[in-house]
Design goal:
Layout: H1 3-12, H2 52-82, H3 88-110, H4 112-116, H5 120-145
The structure holds zinc ion.
Length: 146
């Protein structure tokens, strides 16, 4: 049985809405929505995708990376406009923080499946570590600048 046959058979006796446009797909004959013409597929999904801690971790690292990118862009702009250059002492934690948090964020985004398969305590520990890294990075920056 092809994937299209399985989809057609599944929808033969079910009223399921198109995930894009909401059209009732009951009695569909092929794998395209007749209303919006998008390709459809029958899939197996997890009931609980276990993404809560992953989202908390991604948001934590994204806050840190965003903070560093904004400050680096601001310092770059100030250098262009007024010639003002912050001290290297202030720049080092920003650049190091950006590299560490940026790498961790990319690993987290690519490793969603790996993250999902960890035990609950491990997912919570990674999510907490992401926020600790972000807060520590900000504290180091403000400690050195302020
Ligand atoms: Zn549709």
């Amino acid at each position: 049985m092809s994937d299209t046959d399985a989809l057609v058979e599944f929808l033969a006796d079910r009223h399921v809405s198109c995930p894009n446009c909401g059209y009732d797909l009951h009695g569909l004959r092929n794998a395209r929505c007749p209303e919006c013409d998008l390709q459809l597929a029958l899939r197996v999904n997890l009931v609980d995708p276990r993404l809560g801690a992953w989202i908390v971790a991604v948001v934590g690292l994204s806050c840190g990376v965003g903070f560093e990118v904004l400050l680096l862009a601001y310092f770059g702009w100030m250098k262009l406009v007024s010639g003002f250059a912050p001290s290297a002492v202030a720049m080092v934690p920003l650049v190091v923080g950006f590299m560490v948090q940026g790498s961790a964020l990319l690993a987290l985004l690519r490793g969603r499946g790996w993250f999902r398969r960890r035990a609950g305590w491990a997912r919570a520990a990674v999510a907490s570590a992401c926020w600790v890294i972000t807060l520590a990075s900000a504290l180091v920056f403000f400690g050195l600048v302020g």
